[in-house]
Amino acid sequence: MSVLVVCSxxxxxxxxxxxxxxxxxxxxxxxxxxxxxIQNYVxxxxxxxxxxxxxxxxxxxxxxxxxxxxxxxxxxRSGVEVVAAAPGxxxxxxxxxxxxxxxxxxxxxxxxKECGNGAVVEHxxxxxxxxxxxxxxxxxxxxxxxxxxxxxxGLVGLSGNAxxxxxxxxxxxxxxxxxxxxxxxxxxxxxxxxxxxxxxxSVSNYRPTEIINVGFADRAMTMDEIETGEVKQxxxxxxxxxxxxxxxxxxxxxxxxxxxxxxSPQGQVIAEYRAPKLPRDQAQYFISAGRKRGGSxxxxxxxxxxxxxxxxxxxxxxxxxxxxxxQ
Length: 327
Prior knowledge:
The protein is mainly beta. Helices cover 5% and strands 36% of the residues.
């Protein structure tokens, strides 16, 4: 088994003029914005500050790839394929690392193996792609293999330096990191060229904030229970002690205002919560609102929850979702 090469964090640089641009397919078998989401983009700021390709905050200092996350570990366990973004030859692989959050094992346990289980594919003309954090035992290729665009390399996992199930996808040209959303950008917002295939035009529809989980439960829940998918095992019923609606969003900013309300089948507000303004940017955040059962059973019908996110006084996100409770 070859040792997977993990390059140090370096700043983005444009591809020299005259070099042939490489276009890429989406590297995860998922629907962006529905079954997967971009958690972090490449950091374009060479200082200790941060900036994604739209001069936004969807990155962290020194981040050298695109993090494509799944909604929760329950989805990850179902098996979501990582695929080659372009044809080429497999240069390096690693497998055998456990799917455990770095928050549990600590950074010392994965030192030198931050990429976790993964692969590097070389595409010619100096282009290569790296695929990190794949699931243990899922890597399907070995060094020297030829792969076609869209061919399965493994499954999305939680190995290496990862706190949530995702693929860390890095593009390099002659060893230098290139942002596939903005090749050649020179510091200007929305500059550079997309390296995604034309059919993936919607991939470049940048969203500063996204809702990734919504649902109902029969009790109050924690962020960990949303992350593991455990909360989905506790749907409310007519005899549930409580009825709680929850929402988790990513890409939240300082001063954002969030509110959630829960209405009965008759349209009456039975629970609501308005969160304090966020004191700082948050990579992810969840809020909930609920009520304990007052009578012997919950009245049957459709209960509706509505989440609203306001930024600088303007509403930027609204999501309604429902739960049906039978007699």
